[in-house]
Design goal:
This protein is mainly α and 404 residues long. The protein has 17 helices and no strands. Helix 6 runs antiparallel to helix 7. The longest helix has 30 residues. The two termini are 20 Å apart.
Length: 404
Amino acid sequence: MQKEFPSPRAVYVLAIGIFAMVTSEFAVGGLMPEMAGGLGVTISQIGYLITAFAVAMSAGGPLMTVALVRIRPKPALMLLFAIFLVGNVLAALAPSYSIMMVARLITGVASQAFFGVAISVAVQLSRPEVRGRALAIVLNGLMLGTLLGLPLSTLIGGQLGWRAAFWAVGALTVIAALATMMGVPRLGRADGGNGNFRQEVAVFRNGRLWLALSTSTLIIGATFAAFSYLSPILTQVTGFSSEAVPLLLVAYGAATVIGNYFVGRLADKHTISVLLSGLILNAIFLAGFALFAHLSVPTVITMLGVGLVGVTMNPAMAVRIQRIGNPGPLVNTVHASFITLGVIVGSSVGGLAIDGFGLRAPLWLGAGLAVLGMVSLLPELGRTRAQSPTGSLAQERVEAATTH
């Protein structure tokens, strides 16, 4: 049972949980004016709630995962659902800005740890040669959160008040938890049942793992340097109306779902090739976006291109990390923290670039980060240059077996 694939009920159920987490993460971004008015603060202060969520994910998620290292995956998922639900209920009831900040910190920590444990469970549910496909299914929760989570939470908040959006996320969390309880089988720990903290952290002595983590940061940083500022670029540079922007963002989200599907199909056998191709294409699309941002048709084409080959590299990134490290929840959570770091770097440095060089600057920044990502892959390419694709895959499996 543990090594069969596909396992639709279990793997798709995990995607529902991630969808709930991502929807909560994006909710604040779509409700900033309403929340600012309701809590009696400025919009910039509401923006700090987004930053706090990201920092809690990046720093607190691995610590939470360490605390759960001796707990089996299914009970760990249920505990994280409970913590996440508490955070969203607290957000819905928050009488003040400070309480809302606490709520976002709680949900950020639980969300990141959930990502790590859920990905580890997906690995346990699938054979090694189809892990990329399983991870793509689970990570569709992330893509659908990008596609549907923000507009849905914005719609609910706009019609029923911003607190209703957090109540809706809470209800979605309960549904996901019940589905997980019924649909995910009981599994042993990914470490074989030892629950040994030293064994969990020993893999981080491997320099190749840190290089792979940095590649993931650069891939996501390149994408989010552009994604974070799509709305002002599309309206102020390209000249689209504000009413057209939501439709363009939905199209972007649809592109991520499509790209995630194909990357998941290719990630197992062509991991490094997929990552390199994605970085090359992303650099081209981002540079083209920057050059032709004043023209509507090239803008739409290049924006959708970024959607196809940007954040969609997640399944290949995860396969690479697990082969070099291990499929355990701590490695996956730390990887998710490096991904979050990419979001922080891309959005924050992109904002500074706008202040100094204008709205096209984040696009050039993204292209530069993609080039740095290519450079970070060079050592791995050197390791496999003399090997055929089949030999490379066999070598990766040997390394995975000896590491785990």
